[in-house]
Amino acid sequence: MFKQVLLMLALTCCGTAYSAGIYKWSDTKGNTQYTATPPPHGVGYELLAKPPQSKASDRSRQPRTEQKQESADTGSEQAVANASDERKARWAENCKIAQKNLEVLQSDRDVVQSSPEGEKTLLDSSAREQAVSQAKKDIEYYCQP
Questions:
Q1: So what's the pLDDT on residue 17?
Q2: Where are the beta strands (DSSP E) in the chain?
Q3: For the residues of 26-57, what is the DSSP string, one character each?
Q4: Is residue 6 part of a domain?
Q5: Domain count for the chain
Q6: Beta-bridge partners for 112
Q7: pLDDT per position as a tens digit, 119-131
Q8: Which of 138, 51, 142 is nearest to 90 (CA)?
Q9: Residue 95 lies in domain
Q10: Residue 47: inside a domain, yes or no?
Q11: How crowded is residue 34: how many other Cβ atoms within 10 Å of its Cβ?
């Protein structure tokens, strides 16, 4: 549970982490690492969060076909609705993560943050205050009604 909360903290504090994907792997000492970059070559890993696909890559994978204007309009309305639903789901998940991060940061427990290279550091009071501030901003941004 504590590792999951730390992972959520790392995801929120490191904005690029989600866009790059989250990799779980074990180092040579047997320690579990969570990173935004793939582990060294030859090390087995598990991809926990896949990076979101860009719209450009989605378009390049779809074959181009001629369609009637009426069916194209219906398809684009469906696509807009699907994109809106996906965005709402991502925002709801980010809201939950931000709330859990704030809960952990405001507790009396020590908080450890992992760098993209897998180095773990204990948050001092200054870094913790910055993380609390960021978590509050994330809640304000993602938890809008």
A1: 40
A2: 22-26, 32-35, 45-49, 112-114, 120-122
A3: E-TTS-EEEESSPPSTT--EEEEEPPPPPHHH
A4: yes
A5: 1
A6: 122
A7: 888 889 898 899 8
A8: 142
A9: 2-16+69-142
A10: no
A11: 22
